[in-house]
Amino acid sequence: MDLLTHVLVAYLLTYGLVGFHPQYLAAGALAGGLPDADALFFPLARRFPILRHHGITHSVFGVSVVAVVGAFVAPMIAPGSVLVYFLVLEAGGLAHVLQDGFTQFAVPPLAPFSDTRLQMDADRAVNFVTLAVSAVSFYLLLGVERNHVAFATYLATVYALSALFVAYFAVRLAGRLAIGRHRRALGDLAQPVPTTNPFAWLLLREEVRDGRVRTTWARYVLGRGIVDGPHSVDGPVDPSPHEGLPATATEALEWSYPLARRASRVLESTYHFGEAFPEGTGGWVAFWYSLEFTAFGRSAAVRVRFPAGGGPAEVRSTFYRPRRRAV
Q1: Is 270 within 8 Å of 291 (Cβ atoms)?
Q2: Is residue 131 part of a domain?
Q3: Is residue 182 exposed (0-12), middle (13-18) or buried (19+ Cβ within 10 Å)?
Q4: Which of 88, 119, 148 is the last residue before a domain boundary?
Q5: Do residues 13 and 129 both lie within one domain?
Q6: How many other C-beta atoms are found inside a 10 Å radius of the C-beta of residue 22?
């Protein structure tokens, strides 16, 4: 979850707990984003791993320490009950931990007593859809409606947004739970990866054998099952000697894959797929794109072009909209 969504969800949760009290709403919203302040510990995290991102600050213990300290400090800034401040700070922090548990980034809720990880992998860590909803919602609640509309209208907006996020998380979790029976289509190693669309998932499998990487993927839609695929592509990890131009799409992919992996850290560290097409000039162009690092139908990709006149391949990192749309 992105920082803005963490803050908005904590704001809505705080409103549901204590109503419209600006000092408590501010404290709860702040607590919703505060666990990600561990990014500031980066210089120390190498020496003290417990301070790493998604470490102790993303645990019940870490959240509770912040809530206790904040409960005594906050009344010095804005008058209020120590107990209520503790309640909203604790709730906002725990909401952050739970939301991160929905993503592919695991969190240790029982740290430092246990390193057991919470990872439901039902959503992306940063989803541009929820980010846009959060940004518009904050503008609506705090800019347009606050002190400008009837309180009943403001209240209806808060409850509508709360229902929207509850429904969103419910759909994500339902998809994650329902997808198990469809993974057999790709084998036991299939990994479900959420897309920007809360109803759509990618089922992925990657195998490394004999110096080659093989990726298989299918598109799954909640309520419809697998709607595209499975598709597979493979290529050598290390470049192989060759001369002239590729003669087929398979050969273009074979020659371009090692070059693409070396050109992009994103491509190398995520599931990926490739396509190759002949050019009108007689050359070939191959695209290798990430199946995970995507937004608005485009993917982080590497284009490898084999010019008709010969010479070295042209390698360029880019964002590309695949012809076989996978995300």
Answers
A1: yes
A2: yes
A3: middle
A4: 148
A5: yes
A6: 10
End-to-end CA distance of the chain: 19
The first and second tokens of residue 272, run together, are 């990926």
Alpha carbon 171 to its chain's center: 16
**What domain range is 308 assigned to?**
239-327
Q: Within a domain: residue 183?
A: no
Tell me, yes or no, whether 13 and 138 share the same domain: yes
Q: How many domains does the chain have?
A: 2
Cβ-contact 213, 267 below 8 angstroms:
no
Query: What are the helix (H) ranges across the chain?
Result: 3-18, 22-33, 42-45, 60-77, 82-101, 128-138, 151-178, 249-263, 265-269
pTM (predicted TM-score): 0.69
List residues bridging with 207 in a β-sheet.
Answer: 214
From first to last of its 327 residues, the chain has per-residue pLDDT tens of 678 899 999 999 999 999 989 999 999 999 999 998 877 776 676 677 667 777 888 899 999 999 999 999 999 999 999 999 999 999 999 999 998 888 877 788 888 888 888 877 788 777 778 888 899 998 998 888 888 899 899 999 999 999 998 999 899 888 888 887 766 665 655 678 888 788 988 888 878 787 788 888 888 898 888 888 788 887 777 766 677 788 888 888 888 888 888 888 777 777 788 889 898 778 899 998 887 777 667 788 899 998 887 778 889 888 887 765 443
Among residues 130, 148, 166, which one ends one of the domains?
A: 148
Query: How far lies 325's CA from each of 76, 234, 296, 305, in Å?
Result: 55, 18, 11, 21
Token digits of residue 273: 């797929």
For residue 195, tell me if it sits in a domain.
no
Quick one: 143 and 12 in the same domain?
A: yes
**Are residues 124 and 21 located together in one domain of the fold?**
yes
